[in-house]
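EI: anyone free to look at a 127-residue chain?
SC: sure, send it
EI:
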Amino acid sequence: YMHRAQTADTEIEWDISLPDTMPIPDIDLCGILGNILENAVLACAGVSGDRRYIDLTMRHEKNELYIVATNSFNGKVRQKNGSYLSTRRHGAGIGLKSIMSTTEKYGGTASFSHEGTEFCSDVVIPL
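SC: here you go
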């Protein structure tokens, strides 16, 4: 996703500080991160080049894993009953639902929000 973002002239800032081993299987952690980054890269594609950005922070602090990502997007959202709907297809889409499901599997929380043309994904998982 870093390569895809760079190819699309998206400014990237990543701050990742994790221990060598995590109690969460790689496949689940990659699923969460992959969905967040895929959504961010696709969202940035709809923004003019000089305003494209993805900021990602991943930290392990106080027995919790924090993943916070913010990215630019065109400011247009689709929501139903407080949940975000896919802007690429009809219906809810599966990316955010997958993030929430995997996070909840480990007793954590995932929340999503937007303000103006910035979208935020916030994941906290107890370790």
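EI: The helical segments are 2-7, 26-44, 95-105.
SC: 👍
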